[in-house]
Give the backbone structure.
Amino acid sequence: MSWALIQPQPEVFDFSYYDPIVEDAAKSGLELIGMVSSQRGIKYFPARDWWIWNNHRGMMPDPAAWSRFLATVVERYREVIRYWEIWSEPNCPVCNPMSYYDHRLYREVLVLGSKAIRDADSSARIISGGLWLDALRPSYLNALLADGAAEYFDVFSWHLLLMPLRRESIPFPLWKPTLDRWMDYFRARLPKDCPIWITEFGIPTRLGDSETLHTRSRGEIVGLTEEEQADWFSQFAEVADGEWGIGALIWLMLSDQDDPTRYYTSAMGMLRADGSEKPIAARIAEFQREKAVQRAANRGGG
């Protein structure tokens, strides 16, 4: 939930964008996560250019404004939203360049946010801002946890957005050893029995006959075929649920964007831009049904 969109002026709160989304999701029986963050244009940061909003003066020049925003949002949606994720990818050097270099800036956001949310709803569950695995340095999380950050969240989260740089690197078995090591690292450093969720997960598909989706400094990002996308999801989901004990796996994009060449995440939908389903939509539904049956059997002792 964008701070800038909800509170465009200090004394103005506008929920016209989010109210219908929350209402429709509740009617559909979906459980929501409220991810609270800032977006470009936020009024409370000293720099006008969003790219440097978290400048040398710190990420939170107005702690009271951040706390007030969260209290207002949580009080409005507390009957519908139980889980709140505080910020997104604080370790991303592009989105959050200063907190990427200094974990203390995100810790400040987390501590203030956690207190404000729990004061507004004592039953709320706090999710740490999903760490972007592609840019995660062990020293960052080590320092964050050493400064007591785990006291302020109930669920630890990370993000995986697949960015294969060549076709040979696509198969899931090539990625699994690295992901295994990351999971071992998380388990070794987090409090015992701390739930781990993946709150953003996405796999890009190619555009027509072109494999290249996006070009960046590290090279071209190639897209998968739609069947490869579905197969990658199935293999990953089984390991995440069975071996790693991931508590929740949340797909990033409902549908592709009209112009998926704009950025590689725009081609990560389970639906095509015209609304038709990709094979992954059926795979996700099948996985959910299987897990629902397993949970029912476990509750029944069978």
Notes: The chain is about 40% helix and 15% strand.
